[in-house]
Amino acid sequence: MGSEAAGMGSEALGMGSEAARLLEAVDFAARKHKDQRRKDPEGTPYINHPIAVARILAHEAGVTDMVVLQAALLHDTVEDTDTTFSEIEERFGAEVRRVVEEVTDDKSLPKMERKRLQIERAAACSRRAKLVKLADKLHNLRDLNRCTPQGWTEERVQEYFRWAARVVSGLRGSSAALEGALQRLFEARGVPT
């Protein structure tokens, strides 16, 4: 793969092809999220979410940047499992680690503080992190439109849409396709942007 793969941690693992590097991230995320479920009534396996985020990036935004696609697959591993940033860097390289770091909430902070920081820090994120965040929000909002999570009221769903719109406003200028899809969801919900 030459210089394109340099510094991405894949050469040492014998993952020269992009397909192999992508599958390594899928496998890693699947192992880390193996016992987790989404909050939908079906209890969908959690791994479906990071796969959907990567799929949105590839299919709807035309993203081919392997760092972005791997980071999308790994974006919740540190936040929601026992994965460390060092582990991400060892397996996938410093660039992937940086993107995952940018999109990871500090779970030691109270929930409302984490949500406030997402809004506050959105505009300062790298373009790669913004793409992952946009696709993450898009998948979560589509899921919320599809069904209400267990224990959520309609008002809580609407509040999530309002909060997401504030985060997305700081991510603008990264992907017209993803921003347009999000805008349509916000408009359908009557959420100002």
Question: SSE layout and pairings?
Answer:
Blueprint: H1 18-32, H2 48-59, H3 66-74, H4 77-80, H5 85-92, H6 94-103, H7 111-121, H8 127-146, H9 154-169, H10 176-188
Describe this structure in words.
With 193 residues, this protein is mostly helical. Helices cover 61% and strands 0% of the residues. The protein has ten helices and no strands. It has helices at residues 18-32, 48-59, 66-74, 77-80, 85-92, 94-103, 111-121, 127-146, 154-169, 176-188. Helix 1 (18-32) packs parallel to helix 3 and helix 5 (85-92) runs antiparallel to helix 6 (94-103). Residues 1-14 have low confidence and may be disordered.
Summarize the structure.
The protein has ten helices and no strands.
